[in-house]
Amino acid sequence: MKLELTMTEALHDYVTAISPPEPEPLRAVREEAGYLGAGMMQVPAQEARFLATLVKAVGARRTLEVGVFTGYSLLATVLALPPDGQVVALDLSEEWTSLAMAHCRRAGVAHQVDLRIGDARETLAALVAEQGAAGSFDFAFIDANKEGYADYFDGALALLRPGGVIVVDNVLWHGAVADPDATDSETAAVRAFNERVRNDKRIDYAVLPLADGMTVAVKR
Ligand SMILES: C[S@@+](CC[C@H](N)C(=O)[O-])C[C@H]1O[C@@H](n2cnc3c(N)ncnc32)[C@H](O)[C@@H]1O
Q: Which residues form a coiled coil (predicted)?
């Protein structure tokens, strides 16, 4: 028996068929990104469901997102929060995140999103310095530029409470991490991040070969 399933199109369709339907507000975000020719940027529906399930599993009230784009993962997590829950959402782009906020307004959850525009390294440093922010988050999702992953992980970990969960996206980077001929800076950054996590005594973690690969870490 094989250790891992190969995800065929038929099996993917089966997983979709036995999963809960994609909520309408998320379908709208996915379709819009498709029209814009940027669908590859957002997390797949199955990954978003996994994030939402984790948010509920840890009973999250306050979450962090690094890399919002047009809001697919943002909306998936904010819809999984209780009505008084909050997402602090970090991104460089006013343009993409204005679309994300429009979707959040339509879904009636914009008041639960604290969007902070800027380089996430600086925004995270400001959050860590902010009184009361450190240790006050239950969940974090990192999905921005790969060269920043180590800094985003350190910032998110400082903001998380013990027992809080961080999910890091794209840790298998289209399979390039295992291709010795792939020497571009993004692949190198993802490999370096993965090696660093291996030696990180602050967390317990697993690497999931779901979607583009996810590292799921729990703060000790
Ligand atoms: C892959 S997209 C995020 C996709 C999103 N999670 C979703 O499901 O739709 C990456 C995002 O990271 C943002 N980004 C890139 N570099 C950044 C940086 N230095 N600081 C903050 N955000 C950054 C980009 O503007 C982009 O919106």
A: none
